[in-house]
Amino acid sequence: MNIHFTTPDGRRLTCAARPGETVMQVAVANNIETIIAECGGAMVCATCHCHVAPEWLAATGPRGEVENDMLDCIDTEVTAESRLSCQIRLSPELDGLVIRLVAR
Amino acid sequence: MTTLNSSWDDKPRSCPVSGLGAVYRPYEHAGMYDFFRRARREEPVFWNDEIRYFVVTRREDVLAVLADVETFSASITLSPVHSFPPDFIAAMKAGGFSFQATLVNADPPLHDRLRGCAQRFLNAKRYNTYEDRIRAMVREHLDRVAGSPGFDLVQALTYEVPAKVLALLLGIEDIDPTQIKRWGDQRLLLTFGDLSGDDLRRAGEELIDYWQYCVRLVHSRLENPTGAEDYPSMLLAMRNGDDSVLSLPDIYGLVFGVMLAGHETTTNATGNLFLTLMRNRDEWERLKADPSLIPNAVEEGLRHSSSVVNWRRRATRDCRIGDVDIPAGSNVLISLASANTDESHFSEPERFDVGRAESREHIAFGKGRHFCLGAPLARLEIRIMLEEVLSRFPDMRLAPDFQPDWIRTITFRGPESLPVLTA
Questions:
Q1: Does A98 touch chain B (CB under 8 A)?
Q2: What pLDDT tens digit does each residue of chain B (423 aa) get?
Q3: What is the sign, positive or negative, of the torsion defined by CA atoms of B229, B105, B81, B48?
Q4: Taking CA atoms, what residue in B is nearest to A86?
Q5: Which of B62, B66, B123 should one mutate to test binding to chain A, selecting the residue with the greatest count of A CBs within 10 A?
Q6: What is the ipTM of this complex?
Q7: B69 to chain A: nearest residue by CA?
Q8: Contact at CB, A42 and B369, closer than 8 angstroms
Q9: Closest chain A residue to B67 measured between Cα atoms?
Q10: Whole-prediction pTM value?
Q11: Could you give phi then psi for residue B279, rounded to 5 degrees?
């Protein structure tokens, strides 16, 4: 499966992914710069913040409670599409997922 | 670059342990990076009998230890490297000191409960609201030495500013920042040093003072709510009388913990960065020519010369690190400094390069569940100090023949003074 990252300056990066991985893991493996993920997926740093393209919001599901709290505390732009990419686990249904990267 | 000096020779000095463990000098900082380079190559995980720890030096192994919170407990993080004598512990308890776990040395579920509360205050969004005040504070410090041909940069700037920033977070206006530093210094020596006798007793008394100060601070906010947005007030508001959310001792511990975590580390990291920049003049000049490199220079400083060189875990079960079997109950010292200079991840790791692409892949703030809550604040403070010093003293250089002295602990590394010339 593939997922796509779009950058704030309009580029589109397509990355191979496997079901079971998180979006953060795919981003880190592909050196996507704005997904830093300093805590490695423990949901304590919020440096893997991203926006999910609106058409994929239903498929990726709602944010968790702790994730919501973390998003309250960050200094990058938080919108209704905001997620922590470490909390989006890929399944075959998410093949083609589009993630919008957030400028840091 | 330093070289292996006489204190790191191959003569075992305690038990007849074979290999590098007998050479390792856990309290010595001169020569440390050379030693770790050798360890990564020859014996990346070794036992040291002086402190009775397994020492882990490769980045990959350090990351594996930090990631596995079930096998490697954080409970040991604030325990003294050398056990306290029973009469000392009794005296501490009599003085009201609590040995209860707080954030940094708690495992789940306690850790997660405390962290969930603490990070509602300790986060990048809030830290950014302090930027203007921190900059004004830094400028005020630099004003005092402007016009002087030379000064000690630690004393003039990096020693006090992080303590004053902490006072801001805590909403304290009536404390001498050097008092916070004195408490912190004693706390470090007590936990990560090798004090004994009267030195140990005096440090214990300072620690009790420090603890009681934190308890009084929490109670003054409890009894006279100011409505202010400071850390103790916010924790009390989150608690809202419910001990299952946070108990009062939890709050004492969090306030006590932030006072330690928030200044010594930043003082040292800033001192290390300035020392390294002064020793790499071309990089200083690069920053002057292109200040947009400053944020990355901060990361490169953290990577190249970490202020927290080692951290600790305890194995909860039999396991392996690299090729070494680690029995349950073993103490494990993970070298963040070594991981940050591991040649398998960083090319030419000992070269200080403010434009290095992978600088931020350091683990100076740890990694995983215990990732440093103060990291964005430390970055903010260090960046501001660097920006202001660069623009105020663009020709600053190290005093001739200066060699740093390091505080004697296994964990923290930073120059005790940094004499500079500006004229």
A1: no
A2: 333 344 555 554 444 455 899 999 999 998 999 999 999 999 999 999 999 999 999 999 999 999 999 999 999 988 888 888 899 989 889 988 887 888 888 898 999 899 989 988 999 889 999 999 999 999 999 999 999 999 999 999 999 999 999 999 999 988 888 888 888 888 888 888 888 889 999 999 998 999 999 999 999 999 988 777 899 999 999 999 999 999 999 999 999 998 778 888 999 999 999 999 999 999 999 999 999 999 999 999 999 999 999 999 999 999 999 999 999 999 999 999 999 999 999 999 999 999 999 999 999 999 998 999 999 999 999 999 999 999 999 999 999 999 999 888 899 999 999 999 997
A3: negative
A4: B368
A5: B123
A6: 0.85
A7: A42
A8: yes
A9: A40
A10: 0.92
A11: -85, -10
Which SS3 state, helix, strand or coil, does residue B355 take?
Answer: coil
* AA identity, residue B116: G
- Three-state SS annotation for B128-184: HCCHHHHHHHHHHHHHHHCCCCEEEHHHHHHCCHHHHHHHHHHCCCCCCHHHHHHHH
Q: Is A69 on the interface with B (CB under 8 A)?
A: yes
Nearest Cα of chain B lies from the Cα of A47 at a distance, in angstroms, of 10
Work out how many CB contacts closer than 8 A connect A with B: 48
For the record, the structure tokens of B72 come out as: 């490697």
